[in-house]
Structures are given as structure tokens and as C-alpha cells.
Amino acid sequence: MDGLRACSRLCRKNSTVCQKSECRFWIEYRPEFNCCLISIHENGSMTLREIGERLGISFARVKQIETQALKKMKRNSLLTS
Fold first, then answer.
1. How many other β-carbons are positioned within 10 Å of the β-carbon of residue 16?
2. What is the rounded (10 degree) CA torsion for 53, 51, 10, 30?
3. Could you tell me if 35 and 18 are in contact, meaning their C-beta atoms sit under 8 angstroms apart?
4. 11 and 26 together in one domain
5. 5 near 37, Cβ under 8 Å?
């Protein structure tokens, strides 16, 4: 499969932005139909700056969040060195 949900495929097919702001994959980024799954599907790996642009935060804040997440993963043995 392509990693998209049925609603994501429907938004792409109809070229309409998602209105379901309660969805855990919803982001306020109209160019990619307000869906982070579509963002990932269309762009693959993204820079911190690209992620920040989609989330409406600075790339420095994205880096802080990434660092915190990696520490938690390492602490919980989810990440190997």
C-alpha cells in the first residue's frame, strides 16, 4: 500500500483539503490537503525547516522536539547506538 488512509486518498483524488481537524494526522497546511500522511507520501524525508513550515513552528523548535524524542527512545531502549 501507499501508507495513506482512505480519507487521505479521497482528499487527493478530489483535490479538497481535509476538514477533520480532530484527526491525529491533520495539520494546517493546505498545499498538502491538511494531512501529514499526504505530506510524507509526497515528499518523503523532509528537513527540519520543511517540517517546521508545515507545523507553523521554527526549525529550532523542531530540533528541540527531535532531541527530546530521541532521548526518550534511547532511555526506553527503542533506539540503539
1. 11
2. 0
3. yes
4. yes
5. yes
Which structural domain range is residue 32 located in?
1-44
- For residue range 44-70, list pLDDT tens digits in order: 999 999 999 999 999 999 999 999 999
The CB density around residue 11, as the number of other CB atoms within 10 Å, is: 22
Band of the pLDDT at 18, cuts 50, 70, 90? very high
Same-domain check for residues 17 and 55: no
Mean pLDDT across the chain = 92
Amino acid 81: pLDDT: 57
Residues 70 and 37 in one domain: no
Q: By three-state DSSP, how is residue 4 classified?
A: coil
Beta-strand ranges (E) seen in 1-81 are none
**Is residue 5 domain-shared with residue 24, that is, in the same domain?**
yes
69 and 55: one domain? yes
Number of domains in the chain: 2
